[in-house]
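Reviewers asked in the last cycle whether our approach scales beyond single polypeptides. To address this, we selected a multi-component target totalling 411 residues and predicted its structure end to end. The input consisted of the following lines:
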Amino acid sequence: MSLVRDIMTIAAVSAGALFFLAGTVGLLRFPDTLTRLHALTKADNLGLGLVVLGLLLQAGNLRDGLKLIGIWLLALLAGATVSQLIARTARQGEAAK
Amino acid sequence: MSIATVFEIVLAAVVLILGIWTIAVRETYSATVGFIAYGLLVALIWVRLDAVDVALTEAAISGGLGGVLLLGAAARLQDAELTATEAPSKVTRVSAALLSSLTAAALASAVLFLPDSPPTLAPTVAGHAWATSLANPVTNVLMAFRAMDTMLEKVVLLLAIIGVWSLAPDDAWGGRPGLRHQADPNDILVFLARLLPPVGIVAGIYIFWTGANHPGGAFQGGAILASMWLLTVMAGLTDTPPVSRRWLRFVLIAGPGLFLIVGLGGLWFGAAFLAYPPALAKPLILGIEVAMILTIAATLGLLLTGAPERSEGQ
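The resulting structure, written as structure tokens, was:
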């Protein structure tokens, strides 16, 4: 049972790390601010989500599990808000040009 | 070599490179962003060293509130930099580089020549934990064994806020700090400022409360409360209070004031300044910490909003 759990954890965390890698590559390679933001949200939402999912299987008790989910939800909220703010500033900057 | 060691080496290397980059980069804004990332990574190093209390403070102060302060300063400097034509002379630059290299060399040699078993008071601290009935050794040191240092640290915060306020122009003296932010109901920041503070206030109080037995405490909790307050100010939902308000000044002196009263009480009734009777140690420490978290939250918030800029009615 614990072996199955470990394998699932490794799979989920690796998939999460892959999304972080893809997001970082996108951040470096994409041509403008809006597409770069689009790449970053993949790392925040899916990448961190998969890492948290993998760690949930290793959480010793309900309290730790809820804390992990709380961290993911807070990161989602912060990421979504900040990307909206950056995107708005970028559009206003373009309009001013 | 275990995975943990590899991770530590990579972390240390990244911090080192980021530090060099922060010094070498030319734009003030880039250097500021580099420094904020540096602070967050240093917090990770503190976690690896099992110093979670320090890590929380580092992340909250260096990565969070200090970062906001530096970004504000960088924005103000940007206007000055555009108009400044005169570069510092070669002598100034060479002596600055020389002074920093000497300081770095002195620090490095001090670390390298540390004795193999450095002198430690940790066993003594652990042996006297019964005196306060708190399980977190850091809180024991901060609030009981070296309480004097913590009290003076709060006085320094008070001096810092007086220093910031003294930059106010004469007609704004006693007025409201910072600009008035207009709340746009469709603004995403307003949405965040309505959604996040309930969560943040609970998290701040939790970190403060758990500081008795686990990493945490008044400073880390106060920093979170201050950031929640600043979020509502930046979204325009609340305005900064005029600094001449009596209740505000009372909150600002509550922490060091209560600390001083308890300390003098120790001199009067007990053995020495700041000596707590063991039976009352925990309630006394808790009382001081409650006053301190309010003072810290108000002080950090006001330090970031800056000097009074508007008279009360504006």
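Chain A has a mean pLDDT of 88. We regard this as preliminary and will revisit it once experimental data from Aim 1 are available.
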